[in-house]
Amino acid sequence: MNLSLVPNIKHTDSNNFFLLAGPCAIESEDMAMRIAEKVISITDKLEIPYIFKGSFKKANRSRIDSFTGIGDEKALKILRKVSETFNVPTVTDIHEVSDAALAAQYVDVLQIPAFLVRQTDLVVAAAKTGKVVNLKKGQFMSPAAMQHAVQKVKDSGSDKAWITDRGTMFGYQDMIVDFRGIPEMREFAPTILDVTHSLQQPNQTSGVTGGRPDMIETIARAGVVNNVDGLFIETHFDPANAKSDGANMLDLNYLEKLLTNLVAIRKTVNNL
């Protein structure tokens, strides 16, 4: 795959998977900078191409009183500061057509949330910015159906599409990953595995989504073995008190060991 489409991305010759990682949502400048600095120190050590992830707002919430953000432009300016301070690319998700042009002024990759990946106007607006568009597979969609989302990007004059698998609904309150979908989706576009949202347990009666972060390494190992191009990991130094998706985020203290193990697996797979 051609990672040179993303400005300032490093370690592209390492033959490693690439990584999108960071907090679920931008809560403050201090937290974003703290997480970015830690992840960058790890990915530089392991020579992993890295893109900092943070949502500038959260529109898909279970309850009206759930945290949605600190203000759109305030959060986007923090993402830009992360990029400029650490010379690292950034990604954020968009929810409305008007978000595309706004966010494109600040970040390098625009992400389409899984619930919205069939929204043609949104996908087209993202593609027309000229940015890489990361299309998250709908929890309700087959891997094969993602070819149509990719085609919308291409029909909009862009060849900068990625696909991210984030699990498929299994009953009302659980997600599963069908690893047969990875090679299938890689036929259409570079494919990323979201190893944190794939372990969500949605639709809890409390209105707060649950998760199984203890299974993150299990899912990530399987993805690397199956030649996924990239990994997506939400991480926080204090998941229990994170303002969004804390139940399925990885504690930042565990990230280095996880990535070290995954890089070792990748090297083994590359030598097969």
From TrEMBL:
<comment type="pathway">
    <text>Bacterial outer membrane biogenesis; lipopolysaccharide biosynthesis.</text>
</comment>
<comment type="similarity">
    <text>Belongs to the KdsA family.</text>
</comment>
<feature type="domain" description="DAHP synthetase I/KDSA">
    <location>
        <begin position="9"/>
        <end position="265"/>
    </location>
</feature>
<keyword id="KW-0808">Transferase</keyword>
<dbReference type="Pfam" id="PF00793">
    <property type="entry name" value="DAHP_synth_1"/>
</dbReference>
<dbReference type="GO" id="GO:0009103">
    <property type="term" value="P:lipopolysaccharide biosynthetic process"/>
</dbReference>
<protein>
    <recommendedName>
        <fullName>3-deoxy-8-phosphooctulonate synthase</fullName>
        <ecNumber>2.5.1.55</ecNumber>
    </recommendedName>
</protein>
<dbReference type="InterPro" id="IPR006218">
    <property type="entry name" value="DAHP1/KDSA"/>
</dbReference>
<dbReference type="GO" id="GO:0005737">
    <property type="term" value="C:cytoplasm"/>
</dbReference>
<dbReference type="InterPro" id="IPR013785">
    <property type="entry name" value="Aldolase_TIM"/>
</dbReference>
<dbReference type="InterPro" id="IPR006269">
    <property type="entry name" value="KDO8P_synthase"/>
</dbReference>
<keyword id="KW-0963">Cytoplasm</keyword>
<dbReference type="GO" id="GO:0008676">
    <property type="term" value="F:3-deoxy-8-phosphooctulonate synthase activity"/>
</dbReference>
<comment type="pathway">
    <text>Carbohydrate biosynthesis; 3-deoxy-D-manno-octulosonate biosynthesis; 3-deoxy-D-manno-octulosonate from D-ribulose 5-phosphate: step 2/3.</text>
</comment>
